[in-house]
Amino acid sequence: MTGTDGTPPARHVVVVGGGPAAHRFVEAMASRDTSDLRVTVIAEEVHQPYDRVALSKAFVGDVDLTLGGGELWEHPAVTLRTGERAVAVDAAARTVRTTTGTVTYDELVLATGSDAARLIFPNGDRTHVYRTVDDVWGLAAEVTRLAGELGRAPRAVVVGGGLLGLEAAGGLQELGAEAAVVNGAGWLMNAQLDEGGGQALGRLIASTGIEVHCGVRPVGILVEDDRVVALELGDGAELAADLVVAAIGIRPRDELAASAGLVTGPRGGVEISDDCSTSVPGIWAIGEVASFEGRCVGLVAPANTMAEVVADRLHGGAATFPGFDTATRLKLSGVDVASFGDAFGTTEHCLEIVYADPARGMYQKIVVTGDAKTLLGGIFVGDATPYTSLRPLLGRELGAEPGAFLTAAGGGEAPQTELPDDAILCSCNNVAVGTARAAVHGDGKTAPCHDLGKLKTCTRAGTQCGSCVPMLKKLLEGELTKAGVAVSKAMCEHVPMSRAELFEGVRALGLTSFEEILARFGTGRGCDICKPAIGSILASQHTDYVLDPGRGALQDTNDRALANMQKDGSYSVVPRIPGGEITPEKLAVIAQVAIEFGLYTKITGGQRIDLFGARLDQLPEIWAQLVEAGFESGQAYGKALRNVKSCVGSTWCRFGVQDSVAMAIQLELRYRGLRAPHKFKMGVSGCARECAEARGKDVGVIATDTGWNLYVGGNGGFQPVHGQLLAKDLDDETLIRYVDRYLMYYIRTADRLQRTARWMEDLDGGVDHVHQVVVEDSLGVGADLEAAMALHVEHYEDEWAATLKDPDRLRRFRSFVNAPTEADDSTAYVRERGQRRPATAAERAGDLGPGIESFDEPVRRPVMLAGLSIPVRAENQEG
């Protein structure tokens, strides 16, 4: 059969399942040639494929866990059908019957995943499970309901002490429940840890306030008045419970395959060969449903590898699945746990080197061959820092004595080890060390990746669970050093220190000018790197006018004009509109200015109004009218606070639980004009529906029934990042105190032009470190940071208001220095959709497209708008 143009029809690949394995498979297919392929994904859940590794984050807010941001599903060869369940497969006819119809396939990929195992005992149907994002949202709603009904913190008992069980207990505790864990084995995480590691983990988990009960199995749930009251244990004890969650394992969803005649494994799952093919030609299986050598494993790394293998095979390759990588890592409430390789020491004649400190909850074990040279596996509890450097060395000779890697014993950092190119650096995405090395140096076709963010983007290392990021950073710094691209802290050739170091030096010595700073800390006359950075440091520490003599020359083009230069040489004007709230009278003033000066108007993504097309000499006249009406500079041109976005909040919205508009205005008026290493944005949402997209901002505030949750380190842009929860249920005063500390700590320690997300990523400890500094005041600088912010608030002055007061400051806004009143009107404009914009080269030559008219320089005439007499420009146009 051929297409209408005589070409063979595209092969149709159908994927059943919409989890991470399916996403990775489609991603792998889309990255290859798809000219003769089309891919259809049938997903039972209504959500796009999301990150199950980060599932616990959904406990604390409306979190977007969508893998890859959803862009993959816009690929022309890919179709995603959500909320549709596959009910039968006809292998002979090569069709899949779903709840909405029948789909024909050429190749079928089963990625049906698994279900959470259920408890089979009296009232076992009263349990909840922890498997999907809907499960998490359901648990959160139930905790909230119970708290309101009982008038106290509900007691949640999790059955199962493995990875998922501990995550569930931690999430329930974050929601405000009293959490307990019951595990049938004698210690927690018994599938990954030996008894010593499990006992140490139990002590650490108990220290977080989560009860731990091991070596006992539940036999039933006690119910009174149709309400769960206790979990009955096998030893006769009763554990008080208002909510019971089962996290006892997973069961592969192989019923679709079994009914179609595919061979299943001895413990369930679809049997696959090392090419991930099943017993029926044209059908493949990947992820948790795939049984390889009699095993199904619920980890992301092997699922990703299987997906890559099938994508390669469907494109004519010969990739094979090497077997399961069962390395695991858990970080919960500050408890760090990792296990990899032969963690239990089952290899013949192997040696186990162990450090144990039960009092501190520390346990580290390295398993090596009998000659103590080759690494076979390891377990780390309490301090898992050696894991990142040892994991890639699995099966290789260590470069030092095994005991040297037991950092908890007090011997200092683990030895530096050179990793071979074929060692796997990122097991989630199967990225080899050699791949990362090559990306650092570039290959002549692609640019070298000399910063961590770019290296993660181009290799995908560190973009899933994140546990390999420290090793990736260490590799980057090592490769740059070896290449002679020295990992220097120097800001530029004139300043041999980092921005953070320079900031502290300037602050300690009280320096107030560029000349003083360069004389004390640098050489030469400066450049376009250090000048704006020093200008920003001075603006952060002092309250002088940013363009005063000695400072104006330090600023970028936009800062020097106090406006953003556009592509045609004109400027845009952005008045501050705190929280997006504006009166009709002020709207009329903006309309008056736009009409009078013939400006193009656009509502920005930050809930402000941008006026485009102003000449440099017009800026003072425009701002004179705006300042008189009560507007301030929105500083859209500066490395400073841009805006605080807000939803309507409880003032009008029936879902709002706090007054988000009032809080947004308070925050914007507090931090306006605050200069920083990079621009930063804020958002305030009045409820968990998150209409202000606060988690996409450098500082995000989301209302709860009892206060505010504070998120930090989010941003949009080329590398979008979700903000991370820093503190929850804060009152107004505490919220502002924490934001003061966070912003000032960022301003003092970040590199030049470094957004908050990248800054936190580069900090040792990331958000945990920030929490210690901001919330716990671990460095003892909280009061100092707050005082610095108070100084900024006290001495804030609008830059345009200050400019208009001083004739000398206005001199910089002349079009020509030798002709102060003439204006340059040489720019050509055209009219489109009722507004003027710069003409393209073709349009300047007279080639106007449909709906586009020439735009002559207009003449002012008065009109009436909303009862106001407003000068407006008449336009010469036909008709």
What can you see in these coordinates?
It is a single chain. A hairpin with a 3-residue loop joins strand 5 and strand 6 (102-104). This protein is an alpha/beta fold and 879 residues long. It contains 24 helices and 41 strands. The model is unreliable at 816-824 and 857-879 (pLDDT under 50). The protein has a 5-stranded parallel β-sheet with strand order 3-2-1-7-19, with helices on one face. The chain is globular, with a radius of gyration of 31 Å. The two termini are 57 Å apart.
Write the layout of secondary structure elements.
Elements: E1 11-16, H1 20-30, E2 37-43, E3 78-82, E4 86-90, E5 95-98, E6 102-104, E7 107-110, E8 114-116, E9 128-129, H2 133-150, E10 155-159, H3 163-174, E11 178-183, H4 195-207, E12 211-214, E13 218-224, E14 227-233, E15 238-240, E16 243-246, E17 250-252, H5 255-259, E18 270-271, E19 283-285, E20 290-291, H6 300-314, E21 328-332, E22 335-341, E23 351-357, E24 362-368, E25 375-381, H7 385-390, E26 424-426, E27 431-432, H8 433-441, H9 452-459, H10 469-482, H11 499-509, H12 514-521, H13 530-541, H14 557-561, E28 564-565, E29 571-573, H15 584-597, E30 600-603, E31 609-614, H16 619-628, E32 641-646, H17 660-671, E33 680-685, E34 699-704, E35 707-712, E36 724-730, H18 732-749, H19 756-762, H20 766-774, H21 782-795, H22 799-804, H23 807-810, E37 829-832, E38 835-838, H24 841-844, E39 853-855, E40 859-865, E41 868-874
Helix pairs in contact: 1-6, 8-10, 11-13, 18-21
